[in-house]
Specification:
CATH architecture of the largest domain: 2-Layer Sandwich
CATH topology of the largest domain: Heat Shock Protein 90
Number of helices: 20
Structural class: alpha+beta
Oligomer: single chain
Largest sheet: 9 strands, mixed
Number of domains: 4
Strand content: 15-25%
Length: 638
């Protein structure tokens, strides 16, 4: 068997910047769009480092008219151009041609820095077809040109100059990259984020391909950034108060902000020395730890734990929009692209800085905290329902417009949900009157038999096994639990039509409890209504009037002339009404009165507690609630 020799002469040594051109992916992550833009970010981060350490106040970024060349400049100190005593080369040339050469390894020059590997500018040079560095310092202007990482000539003085700063013009090498064309929208977004993270820093961006210019400056820092993030996500904040913090400890600086919203997921954006870390890291984990611990501490302190459901970390963080910006003296990144922070101590530092202040903020803003806790409890209940429903609802909860509908449902002919409404009616008798009197084009009727299951006292398996409640879910068509999809809702008005007596009120309350616990989005989106059927008919001469309550009846009688002897009819139930009467008084959109079911802002936690007390298994809480309101009772219907 033949063998090949393998000795010292077979070893290839890549010198200077050759390793970068040979394996660019090791330094910039790839040669696609992200790698191309990584060159720009390396230079921008160097300029931001000058600003972070107090040496620069203005950064300029220009995408030239060809769309494939750029210039990044700053008014910082300017890269040194004098000869290095050891290598007998200009410091500018050393930085641009040598890996791991720079001024950021010594903390005396940069307390915090985004580019600590010392390879950023040299990698840009290595992967550029052409690069020109212009430095202003020591009252002069100094220029040096490079081609594919190699200097065309020495650093030359090209005249005098006022002020200081550095400008790097570069053209990415089309022989390296798949496509050389900068995305100006992506660049503008990221530059604005840099301005947010460095409050007061001015970044001027010029797009010569379109002639547009932008100046980004946000003195509010992360406070401005989180508001922009919430707006861009088209999210609705749970409360309008955002928590913003700025803290520093032993050279570690934290700027963070948090807001709870109606999103179904969390959105945390993290940064280290203004560099985005899309893969997170220890600083982002510390932020999440702090949020969960602060909420749990507040819940335990104020005894707000809901009965029958446990709050998980994912419930607490659901809907959170957060910003975590850390300034770390010696960051340890995962890879040259710096997508993840690996400093082990960052997790504990962020937790220790953020958690106490967030918890204190909760205590100082009790109404804000309670609204947030109510949102978290709602998420916990929905998640519990989703877990249990995943295996039982798969085939029967999500239905189409015409398939698998309940047999008792008298559907409408319209297939436009915005034009359709469902009346959920108490009993077959009332259901018959409603079916006969309705507008068949837009009004559907679903009669229920007797009092439905109390969803507050039953576990999920019993709820799912209950035929009446299952019929409601099937008729609605939007599913439940993991299969809930409000876009499949078949009726945009869900109207509970019950007798105007205590039994009717009880059944309506049972249905509302079910909807609140298992289909809360229907209430939050304004799709649930209560019909207002009359309890009395008062005929005086040729005039007929309707009264919804005993009090309203007395008010009508009081207004009648004394010599009039009215005929008063009290309806024992909707089934006693003629179909035409039921339609005119209760179902006709032009004449009826509906009550929309809503939860007022700031009362979500109180609503949750009321449902739990009124409908839960604890009899003592219900007794105390009833006795506490007994003075308000004027008429008791038994």
């Amino acid at each position: 068997m033949a063998t090949e020799t393998y000795d010292a002469k077979d070893i290839t040594v890549l010198e200077g910047l050759d390793p970068v051109r040979k394996r660019p992916g090791m330094y910039i992550g790839g040669v696609g769009k992200d790698g191309l833009h990584h060159l720009l970010w390396e230079l921008v981060d160097n300029a931001v480092d000058e600003a972070m350490n107090g040496y620069a106040s203005l950064i300029t970024v220009t995408i030239h008219a060809d769309g494939c060349s750029a210039t990044v400049g700053d008014n910082g100190r300017g890269i040194p151009v004098d000869l290095h005593p050891k290598y007998n080369k200009s410091a500018l040339e050393l930085i641009l041609t040598t890996l791991h050469a720079g001024g950021k390894f010594d903390n005396k020059l940069y307390e915090t820095s985004g580019g600590l590997h010392g390879v950023g500018a040299s990698v840009v040079n290595a992967l550029s077809q052409n690069l020109v560095a212009t430095v202003k310092r020591d009252t002069g202007r100094w220029v040096q040109e490079y081609k594919r990482g190699k200097p065309v000539g020495p650093v030359k003085k090209s005249g005098s100059a006022r002020g200081t700063g550095t400008a790097i013009y570069f053209v990415p090498d089309p022989g390296i990259f798949e496509e050389v064309h900068f995305d100006v929208e992506e660049i503008a977004d990221r530059l604005e984020t840099k301005a947010y993270l460095n409050g007061g820093l001015k970044i001027a961006f010029k797009d010569e391909t379109s002639g547009n210019s932008h100046t980004f400056q946000h003195d509010g820092g992360v406070a401005d950034l989180i508001q922009a993030k919430v707006a861009n996500l088209d999210a609705r904040p749970t409360v309008n108060n955002f928590f913003v913090q700025r803290r520093e400890e032993n050279g570690f600086r934290l700027e963070a902000a948090i807001c709870w919203t109606d999103l179904t997921r969390e959105q945390v954006s993290s940064y280290v020395n203004t560099i985005p870390t899309p893969d997170g890291g220890t600083h982002e984990n510390g932020f999440r730890d702090a949020v969960v611990k602060a909420v749990r501490s507040y819940v335990d302190t104020h005894d707000l734990s809901p009965r029958g459901v446990s709050i998980g970390a994912e419930d607490i963080r659901e809907g959170v929009v957060g910003v975590v910006s850390t300034f770390v003296p010696d960051p340890q990144f995962q890879g040259q692209t710096k997508d993840r922070l690996n400093n082990p101590d960052a997790r504990g530092i962020v937790d220790g800085l953020f958690r106490p202040d967030l918890e204190q903020w909760f205590h100082e803003h009790a109404s804000v905290a309670e609204a947030i806790i109510a949102r978290i409890i709602s998420a916990a209940r929905a998640r519990a329902a989703s877990r249990a429903a995943a295996t039982q609802v798969r085939s029967k909860a999500s239905v189409s417009h015409r398939l698998n509908l309940p047999g008792k449902l008298a559907d409408c002919s319209s297939t436009d949900p915005s034009d359709s409404e469902l009346f959920i009616v108490e009993g077959d008798s009332a259901g018959g009157s409603a079916k006969q009197g309705r507008d068949r084009r837009t009004q559907a009727v679903l009669p229920l038999r007797g009092k439905v299951l109390n969803a507050e006292q039953a576990n999920l398996s019993k709820v799912l096994a209950n035929k009446e409640l299952n019929d409601v879910v099937k008729a609605l068509g939007c599913g439940m639990g993991d299969h809930f999809d409000i876009s499949r809702l078949r009726y945009h008005r869900i109207i509970l039509l019950m007798d105007a007596d205590s039994d009717g009120h009880h059944i309506a309350t049972l249905l509302l409890t079910f909807l609140y616990r298992y289909l809360p989005e229907l209430i939050n989106s304004g799709h649930v209504y209560l019909a207002q059927p009359p309890l009395f008919r008062i005929i005086a001469g040729k005039q007929t009037q309707w009264a919804l309550t005993e009090r309203e009846k007395e008010r009508i009688l009081h207004k009648l002339r004394k010599n009039v002897n009215p005929e008063i009819t009290r309806f024992k139930g909707l089934g006693e009404m003629m179909p035409g009467t039921l339609y005119r008084t209760t179902m006709d959109p032009a004449l009826r009165s509906l009550l929309q079911v809503t939860i007022r802002e700031g009362e979500a936690l109180e609503t949750d507690q009321t449902i739990s007390d009124l409908m839960g298994k604890d009899v003592s809480r219900r007794f105390n609630m009833i006795m506490g309101g007994v003075d308000e009772v004027q008429v008791l219907d038994v």
